[in-house]
Amino acid sequence: MDEIDFFMDLSLVEDPYPYFENLRRRGTVVPLPAHNVVAVVGYDEALAVHNNNTTLSAVNSVTGPLPPIPFAPHSDDIGDLIEQHRPQMPFGEEVLTLDPPRHGPLRSLMMRLFTPRRLEEMEASITELADQLIDEFAASGHCEFVRQFASPFALLAIADLLGVPEEDRDAFRKNMEGAPAQIGAGSEASVVNPMEFRVETFLRYVDERRRDPRGDIMGQLANATFPDGTTPTAMDVVRVATLLFGAGQDTTATLLGASLRIIAEQPELQARLRADRSLIPEFIEEVLRHSGPVKSTFRLARKLTEIGGVNVAPGTTVMITTAAVNRDPRKFDGPAEFRLGRPSPKDHLAFGRGPHTCPGAALARLETRVSLERILDRLGTIELNPEHHGPEGDRRFSYMPTYVFRALQQLHLRFKPL
To answer: Taking a C-beta distance cutoff of 8 angstroms, is the pair 181, 402 a contact?
Structure first.
């Protein structure tokens, strides 16, 4: 297992955890055999990486080492080379990959959007959307949860929030079909950036809302100012909006799929949640820790960096193996066990930490909580459909073949109609 190429081996897609545990046996920061990568599997070490925006760059946070950086890192500080080549790097100009000083002002625009008051105001519309989707399959006694609920719910929720008109939503849905960072794609792979498709449309939305302000988030973004009082360019607003649109779908849909798989597999836990809805927020945090949406995220060493006693040379990709970090036994007791009642349930790093902490974390939590409440209220006992996933003890699941996300492609459920 020491020689497995994490970025090329499809055998790791369904269950990457034995691979991560093998890395942990070798240390908390482990050089990998290919692609000039070091993997961080220790919680404290990952926290340090998340908080380091001086010697580490987020420019490759989405794609990691593939495709490789388009220049030779031949100096002690490659910061200037990173900025020079950003336009050539997939996602290199998006908010989530920017470094200081460009990142801070754009992030500040996002952080104003999800205030407790706005989230409270959104709950009624999110509940209505969840009920509309449940209406479509509640009487049948079965569903394919990803296609019939998780994906359309996440898409429509963020589309409503941003004010995407009905006539544009099919085009956006088709644009989401490709996934970045696919396992086995190879070092010469071209990465399709779905955000590029959205730029022209969102630029039109920004122009419309600057001429005719509206109360949706797009309107608020279009007419916001930076902390210093200056007005963002239209492209700045588009960068923020495209990030919200994409990340808002990926995180919520994947989190919902993981949550329902656990609920269907653990009838005693399901009964506890049905009996006490106040346990749902804690349940969501444990899903994030135990089976979170993100397997890995990345940084690029800008200068010589020391991580957990390992020297990392400029140009090296640092992989934060989030799925392994959240099961670090130095931090979490019985880490492979799904367990409610853990102290400090939000200690996980599923949403990152530091300057690039997911700005939509509160929204994802809200959408997931409301969805689970309505599903448990409206559907009887939920279980996996053995016709698709096999009998208990021999379950089969299909996951998206990407080394970034751990996302179910299908989840077939059956339940008793109420």
So the answer is: yes
Q: Residue 417: pLDDT above 70?
A: yes
Report the predicted TM-score, pTM, of the whole model to 2 decimal places: 0.92
DSSP 353: -
Burial track 123-153 (b if 16+ CB lie within 10 A, e otherwise) = eeebeebbeebbeebbeeeebbbbebbbbbb
pLDDT at 53 over 80: yes
pLDDT of 28 above 60? yes
Q: Report the alpha-carbon distance of residue 8 to residue 196 in Å, rounded.
A: 26
Q: Which two tokens stand for residue 149?
A: 């609920």
The answer to whether 217 and 248 are in contact (CB under 8 A) is: no
**Pairing status of strand 37-40 against strand 317-320:** parallel
| Side-chain half-sphere CA neighbours of 278 within 13 A | 1
The pLDDT of residue 180: 54
Please give the CATH number for the structural domain made up of 10-417. Answer: 1.10.630.10
Residue with tokens 């079909």: 177
Q: Where are the domains of the chain?
A: 10-417
Amino acid at 144: E
Residue whose C-alpha is closest to residue 297's, from 126, 47, 3: 47
